[in-house]
Design goal:
This protein has 644 residues and is α+β, with helices and mostly antiparallel strands. A hairpin with a 4-residue loop joins β1 and β2. Helix content is 67%, strand content 9%. It is built from 20 helices and nine strands. The strands form two sheets. The chain has a five-stranded mixed sheet.
Length: 644
């Protein structure tokens, strides 16, 4: 079934292309008669517009088999040959009524369908296909049954149907933009909408030009502005294809865009010079003037081609031809990035944006990877990153398309970039090693404190308690010796004081509840104790926690204590929720309240600073957020890479 659908679509596209070519071939000789005041200009501009549409459509159809690409090729073909300048005139010719009207109907249907399907080849929303099919059927019937009318004057019912179709297509694009478009799809849509906007502006400007001169001398210029301005539509589709590799036709479209722009510009200059001289000199010396204009066009071809090539290359390849600009952008990215962890992602984004690459990744020697762009390609270019002869990582880049490999100029720019990226990667590695070393020290300190607490609590503590009991017993037996009894009582009191001091030291080393009942139960007890009788407390706890490093347990407990204390003292909340979870090999502690929230301009207090320091010394982070419903949401993320 699918094969027959594909064959039917291909056959329909081929028939549309043949119909467009037929309408162009039959209609172009009649254009001069419908524009008697500027026949040569009208014929030349329409020919240029049609051939440009055919050229872009042919390139897209030959270089891609994507459904959306083939659909766009058919639409551009009908845009070139099925427009009103041809069909309005041909409809009044004997035997050409049906093909002419069918051509304009197919053009309108294809354009509206493009708005509904672009860029994924699927209607959005899905049910939009039903009203579109009904609208298309009604339009075709109305177009084929409408009597012949003067060129350029379709009946009102046509305008209403076209307006309904275009409004529906634009609403579909708006729906897609809001509900389903990603970054690339939105960029593609922006380019096409830009082309449509340029065409609309040129149409309005060209329509008002004849009114500036009552004699009608600017009518030809207005027609040329409208027609050539409409070229922005196929050109914008070409840019959407090339810049964002929607249909994989980059190289050919690059050359097509360059030479189409050059030919269009030179043709406009030539026509302007010849027609202007004809108007000024009243037909005298036309042969010489034509030769002079031709010589000027020939001399201007190469400089103009270079200028247009640079512009198109900048659109498609970014700053590849300007390595200094790329290095400046990279330098600004490094200067503006403060946090070490965001340096390499920023570099990947900068290189991808500057050179228009679909995928850039920086991989450090320890295996950490920072990427920008879409899916990983198989044919990645891999450049080693070194710093003072030491291997620090690898830079991998995807070419702009399967048929657009990296050029020697690309490689030169990338090798220069790799030198600076290597220095940044080395700095990131040093930062990672420093952070890991600090984490190891913190974990080692916490483990040593846990060992000391266990030794003091289980060893020295019982011995002191036993000593105090023995002193009390000895004092009770010393009935006749008053001084001895007093001395033993004093020693027993001092021993009890030492025991109290020891308990305080043990608690300061590590909260006893962590070893007695575990982290989850200890946090629940801390929450109940802090909020009892003050506000409602909820605790969302995991079913089971893996063994955690001692430093992580202490940090989670202390952060929770401080956060709950702040809620009770300052938030004026009615409810507080504590959530504990394991996410991505890290422990997440979240405290949320429905109170008054933090004042954005308030200074950071000691409690908040200490919580942030506890999280950061373990390589984690503390985020203080303001939910939409009010209150405060504090989220501490504590990595658990160390051994428990």
């Amino acid at each position: 079934m699918r094969r027959w659908i594909i064959r039917a679509g291909a056959a329909g596209g081929a028939l549309c292309a043949l119909l467009a070519a037929l309408l162009f071939a039959l209609g172009i000789p009649l254009v001069g008669a419908t524009h008697p005041s500027y026949p040569a200009l009208a014929t030349a501009t329409l020919t240029l517009f049609t051939l440009s549409c055919f050229l872009v459509a042919g390139v897209v159809a030959l270089r891609s088999r994507e459904p959306m690409a083939l659909y766009a090729a058919v639409m551009l073909t009908m845009l070139g040959g099925g427009g009103a300048p041809y069909t309005d005139t041909l409809a009044s010719q004997p035997g050409l009524y049906v093909p002419a009207r069918l051509g304009v109907a197919l053009l309108i249907v294809l354009v509206v369908g493009f708005l509904i399907l672009f860029p994924t080849a699927r209607p959005m929303p899905r049910w939009a296909a039903i009203p579109f099919a009904i609208w298309a059927a009604v339009l075709v019937v109305v177009v084929l049954t409408t009597p012949v009318y003067p060129p350029g004057n379709p009946p009102d019912v046509w305008g209403l149907l076209m307006l309904a179709g275009f409004v529906g297509g634009l609403l579909s694009q708006a729906w897609r933009w809001r509900a389903a478009s990603d970054t690339v799809a939105r960029a593609q849509t922006r380019w096409v909408l830009l082309g449509v906007a340029i065409a609309v502006v040129c149409t309005i400007a060209g329509s008002f030009l004849p009114a500036l001169e009552p004699s009608g001398g600017l009518a030809g210029l207005g027609f040329a502005v409208v027609t050539l301005g409409s070229l922005a539509v196929p050109v914008s589709i070409a840019v959407a294809v090339t810049r964002y590799r929607l249909w994989d036709v980059d190289v050919v479209i690059n050359r097509t865009a360059v030479y189409s722009a050059v030919v269009a510009t030179l043709a406009a200059l030539y026509l302007g010079m010849v027609l202007g001289a004809e108007a000024i000199l009243a037909g005298r010396g036309q042969t010489v003037l034509s030769l002079v204009a031709a010589g000027f066009v020939a001399a201007a071809f190469q400089p103009l081609r270079r200028a247009v090539q640079r512009l198109v290359n900048r659109l498609m390849y970014g700053d590849r031809d300007d390595p200094r600009s790329v290095l400046q952008r990279l330098g600004r990215a490094l200067d503006e990035t403060v946090a070490g962890g965001s340096v390499l992602p920023r570099i990947a984004r900068t290189v991808a944006a500057a050179l228009r690459l679909p995928h850039v990744a920086v991989t450090l020697r320890d295996g950490q990877r920072f990427a920008e762009g879409g899916a990983v390609h198989d044919d990645l270019l891999r450049l080693p990153l070194t710093y003072q002869g030491e291997h620090v990582g690898e830079l991998s880049l995807a070419p702009r398309g399967p048929h657009d490999p990296f050029t020697p100029r690309d490689l030169d720019v990338l090798r220069d970039l790799a030198v600076h990226i290597g220095a940044a990667a080395h700095a990131v590695l040093l930062g990672i090693e420093l952070r890991q070393s600090r984490e190891r020290l913190v974990n080692a300190r916490a483990e040593e404190r846990r060992r000391l607490r266990r030794d003091l609590h289980d060893g020295l503590g019982p011995q002191l308690v036993s000593l105090a009991l023995k002193l009390e017993a000895a004092r009770n037996r010393a009935d006749g010796a008053g001084d001895l009894r007093q001395t033993l009582g004093d020693l027993a009191g001092q021993t009890r004081g030492v025991i109290a001091d020891l308990r305080r030291v043990v608690y300061a080393l590590r909260p006893p509840a962590l070893d007695e009942v575990g982290l989850v139960a200890a946090l629940g007890q801390a929450g109940e104790a802090a909020t009892e009788g003050v506000l409602e407390f909820d605790f969302a706890q995991p079913e089971e926690l893996p063994p955690l490093p001692a430093a992580v347990e202490v940090a989670a407990y202390r952060i929770t204590q401080e956060a709950l204390t702040n809620v009770v003292r300052h938030a004026r909340a009615r409810r507080c929720m504590l959530r504990l979870a394991m996410e991505h090999d890290g422990l997440v502690v979240e405290v949320t309240d429905d109170g008054c929230g933090l004042d954005p301009g308030a200074p950071v207090g000691i409690g908040l600073s200490s919580m942030r320091e506890r999280a950061e010394e373990l390589g984690g982070r503390l985020d203080v957020l303001r939910p939409d419903g009010g209150g405060t949401r504090l989220v501490a993320t504590l990595p658990c890479s160390g051994e428990a």
